[in-house]
Amino acid sequence: MNISTKIIASLCCLAALPLANAADFEDVARVVSVAPQVEQFNQPRQECTTGYVTVQQPQQKNYAGSIIGGLAGGILGNQVGKGTGRTVATAGGAVVGALVGDNLSNNNNAAPAYAQQQVQNCRMVDNWQTRTNGFNVTYTYRGQTYTTRLPYDPGRSLRVRVSVTPMI
User: How many domains is the chain partitioned into structurally?
Assistant: First the structure.
């Protein structure tokens, strides 16, 4: 037998294979039970709350009183002393005058000012969810019980493909 004869014989056998299958057909089986298969998964989410806190407002410092008090104290100190004492009295008068002037001009701001400030606090929280990822289906066909997993709930009946082949 040469090679071309073998190839032709092989092709004939392959072409006859579909004819060798006896019969494939569809039928209906009775569903006995359906059990959904669920899975839990965590999808964290951010949870935020808004609150209020009391904060101290920065005070506006008034430097005009210090300047005017320092000048006035320096002038008065200059009037008091003589010689080198005049220089010391002028400097001391300027320092004391600046302190007194600052105290007088900023005395109205002695009580600190407070205000309400909005703050937002956020944190991540677990968010567990459940989802169905398939159905375990038990069904009977011609007195035999079978189980399979399907992506959907088939209801009361299930279409099945039946393949009948002769025993060799």
Answer: 2
Burial (CB < 10 A; 0-12, 13-18, 19+), residue 13, is exposed
Tokens encoding 148: 């399979």
CB 118 within 8 A of CB 50: yes
User: Which residues lie closer than 8 Å to 111 by C-beta, 6 or more apart?
Assistant: none
**Would you say residue 119 lies in a domain?**
yes
Q: Give the chain's end-to-end CA distance (angstroms, integer).
A: 28
Domain that includes residue 86, residue range: 58-124
pTM of the complete model beyond 0.70: no
Taking residues 69-97, what's their average pLDDT?
71
Quick check: 76 pLDDT over 80? no
Q: Is residue 2 part of a domain?
A: no
